[in-house]
UniProtKB/TrEMBL annotation:
GO biological process, alphabetically ordered: negative regulation of DNA-templated transcription; regulation of secondary metabolite biosynthetic process
GO MF: DNA-binding transcription factor activity; transcription cis-regulatory region binding; zinc ion binding
Organism: Microbacterium trichothecenolyticum
The protein's name in its UniProt record: Zinc uptake regulation protein
Listed PANTHER family: FERRIC UPTAKE REGULATION PROTEIN, ZINC UPTAKE REGULATION PROTEIN
Binding annotation for Fe cation: 77, 98, 115
Keywords for this protein: Cytoplasm, DNA-binding, Iron, Metal-binding, Repressor, Transcription, Transcription regulation, Zinc
Manner of cofactor binding, per the entry note: Binds 1 zinc ion per subunit.
Stored InterPro entries: FUR, Fur_C, WH-like_DNA-bd_sf, WH_DNA-bd_sf
Residue numbers binding Zn(2+): 83, 86, 123, 126
Co-factor(s): Zn(2+); Mn(2+); Fe(2+)
Assembly mode: Homodimer.
Subcellular location: Cytoplasm
Length: 137
């Protein structure tokens, strides 16, 4: 029974790898709908949550509070720089952040501390495009 939806999950996994950066379940569902896969939104949500739980996808919250997913190339702990305009995503290591988080948790007597740090901004291309647009006005 558990194997029944495997092809759907594989299809969601493929669509996620093809995506350029972090995507929401809705936009992934729209892509799959354009391909006439017949996969429902609820299935996309379930598949994404499953991939994230198994460490095959990264998940994070957009500044608007929406859950976003991405098939990341690194499996270890890492952070992201995300363009809020085009979705371009850069995976980054942040040694300073690791040390700061560790120290801060210890100072307050916390153990097994985890953290989520992602940076949203405008990538160089989008910033240049915006500047060009502003200059034209
Ligand atoms: Zn990642
Ligand atoms: Zn951009
Ligand atoms: Zn970290």
């Amino acid at each position: 029974m558990a194997q029944r939806n495997t092809w759907q999950r594989e299809r969601v996994r493929e669509a996620l790898s093809d995506a350029r950066g972090f995507v929401s379940a809705q936009s992934l569902h729209a892509t799959l709908r354009d391909d006439n896969t017949g996969i429902g939104l609820a299935t996309v949500y379930r598949a994404l949550a499953g991939l994230a739980a198994q460490g095959e996808a990264d998940s994070l919250q957009s500044p608007e509070g929406e859950a976003l997913y991405r098939a990341c190339s690194s499996t270890g702990h890492h952070h992201h720089l995300i363009c809020r305009s085009c979705g371009l995503t850069v995976e980054i290591e942040a040694t300073d952040v690791e040390q700061w988080a560790q120290r801060t948790a210890e100072r307050h007597g916390f153990r097994d501390a985890e953290h989520v740090v992602d940076i949203f901004g405008l990538c160089a291309n989008c910033a240049a495009a915006r500047d060009a647009q502003r200059d034209a006005h």
